[in-house]
């Protein structure tokens, strides 16, 4: 095996989920060159991934969002030219939608691996594949991805997951004052996934009492307003400025603790080896959760909102000491949530 094409186009969390597979491929084929196709909006993580030789990054999201402008179309056509520049021994589509299937079909290879129709995000994408991934066991999304590719290519995987990233260094050191930072990723893509603001406030109080400086990132204007409301109620909390993916990743890399919803940057924190607590309310914890003993833990589940006490207990597990809840905030006895 001399050249491998890996296809995972979006989103940020899925980029992180793919990292253990990259390590597996590099271990199985140490002399191979591995290229990765990812949307330009998510291409930072592939570029930071140790073992990736080339990232092909068409601006697909931007083309759709900006009204299909000629500039973005030129970027897509340029990416197609880059894709066609090299012959591949195999193209591996671990995304499973039309756009990823089209990428596989356009690549210069006769061997294209993908999921069977019942496992695809868009079933008709199966048209692009010459071979279908074999069945997988009952495992989380990362391990299933590793298993199906290993079975298809005929190599063995190690029990543990390995993620290798090289984040660019910031222009100036972050957290140089020696105060540990705790980043709270409170924002989510949908209202149903949110955790109550009052609960975030109690967690923030507890972390402040333990000597952390709470940092609150945000992406949209609504998230900015929510972050400001949290900061006003948490002693010493800091609302971070608007950041690029790189800048936010650098903050995560400098943090002493990351607590947040099932989002890409919280998955990134786990991949970087940071003490991480991931909260679930409307997505599957067994499928998407993080769980590295002594480092990361997931709480809650689809339809099961985690109580504050469980989150603080999880913080204690990953940091090695008790977090301690703030006092004076009444709880709902049924859920453990803090009453506003």
From TrEMBL:
Record-linked Pfam families: Glyco_transf_9 (PF01075)
Alphabetized GO MF terms: ADP-heptose-lipopolysaccharide heptosyltransferase activity
Gene Ontology CC terms, in alphabetical order: cytosol; plasma membrane
CDD domains in the cross-refs: GT9_LPS_heptosyltransferase
EC nos: 2.4.99.23
Pathway terms, separated by semicolons: Bacterial outer membrane biogenesis; LPS core biosynthesis
Membrane topology according to the record: Peripheral membrane protein
Keyword terms, alphabetized: Cell inner membrane, Cell membrane, Glycosyltransferase, Lipopolysaccharide biosynthesis, Membrane, Transferase
Top-level enzyme category: transferase
Catalysed reaction, written as an equation: an alpha-Kdo-(2->4)-alpha-Kdo-(2->6)-lipid A + ADP-L-glycero-beta-D-manno-heptose = an L-alpha-D-Hep-(1->5)-[alpha-Kdo-(2->4)]-alpha-Kdo-(2->6)-lipid A + ADP + H(+)
SUPFAM superfamilies reported for this sequence: UDP-Glycosyltransferase/glycogen phosphorylase
A biological process from GO: lipopolysaccharide core region biosynthetic process
Compartments, as annotated in UniProt: Cell inner membrane
Stated family: Belongs to the glycosyltransferase 9 family.
Protein name: Lipopolysaccharide heptosyltransferase 1
Organism listed in the record: Cupriavidus metallidurans (strain ATCC 43123 / DSM 2839 / NBRC 102507 / CH34) (Ralstonia metallidurans)
